[in-house]
Amino acid sequence: MKLFRKNPGSPAGDVAGKDVSEALFVVLDTETTGLDPLHDRILSIGVLKLQGGRIRVRESMELFIAQEHFDHRSVPIHGILKQGPNRRLPEREALEQFLGFCDGAILVGHHIGFDLEMLRRGLARHGMPEPGNPCLDTDLLYKATLLKSPLLNKKAHYSLDELAGRFDLSCKDRHTALGDAYLTAVAFLHILGLLAAKRPLTLKYLLRIGS
């Protein structure tokens, strides 16, 4: 998975040197008009902060974005209508708020490569530079917790629903950007616990297995 490219002068590229307990993580999720980064657009971004093994619930944000491109076929999944009760921001304004929220943090997401590609294309449309944030994928981290055995048939990918089932987590707000970000954050904490039971955790190790 390709990370965001380092933005010269930004401190975000240096966060990997911090201790895991001190590092600031921003867990993110996007809801989109579809699954084609070339043609589809982001409808909402959900982000929340996590540090020292705690989710900082009060430091969360869900942004809804005004988009001309819209595909009604995706509405049953995310429930976002083209005209809805939530205030829609222009895409550039939403991306600016997202970048400010994530400054100096390690980004975490489930199958985060898709979210990153959607964000990259959005930033490119407005001539905005990519940040230098390191990124972690909870799917890759979860697979590192599984036993290595010829008797265990590991899947290529594990869904967020499968992680929720594994850790007995509620899926009440599934398929909302902030709801999925929260679900991913709780799963991430469980995964860190499993990894820590195997060996001392370092950010260098997390970034090696999860990005």
Q: Gist?
A:
This protein has 211 residues and is α/β, with parallel strands linked by helices.
Describe the protein in words.
This is 3'-5' exonuclease. It comes from Robiginitalea marina. Keywords: Exonuclease, Hydrolase, Nuclease. The chain is an alpha/beta fold and 211 residues long. The protein has a single domain, classed as Ribonuclease H-like superfamily/Ribonuclease H (Nucleotidyltransferase, domain 5, 2-Layer Sandwich), CATH 3.30.420.10. The protein contains seven helices and six strands; from the N terminus they run βββαβαβαβαααα. A six-stranded mixed sheet has the order 4-3-2-1-5-6, with helices on both faces. The longest helix is centred in the C-terminal third of the chain and has 22 residues. The N and C termini lie close together (6 Å).
For the report, how would you describe the main beta sheet? Answer: 6 strands, mixed
Structural class: alpha/beta
Q: CATH fold name, please?
A: Nucleotidyltransferase, domain 5
Strand content: 15-25%
- Low-pLDDT residue intervals, each spanning 5 or more residues: 6-13
**Shape, principal axes of CA atoms:** globular
**How much is the radius of gyration in Å?**
17 Å
- Could you tell me the mean pLDDT? 86
CATH superfamily membership, which one? Answer: Ribonuclease H-like superfamily/Ribonuclease H
Tell me, what is the CATH class?
Alpha Beta
Spatial order of the strands forming the largest sheet: 4-3-2-1-5-6
Ends distance: 6 Å
Helical content stands at 25-40%
Number of strands: 6
Protein name: 3'-5' exonuclease
Keywords: Exonuclease, Hydrolase, Nuclease
GO molecular function: exonuclease activity
Organism: Robiginitalea marina
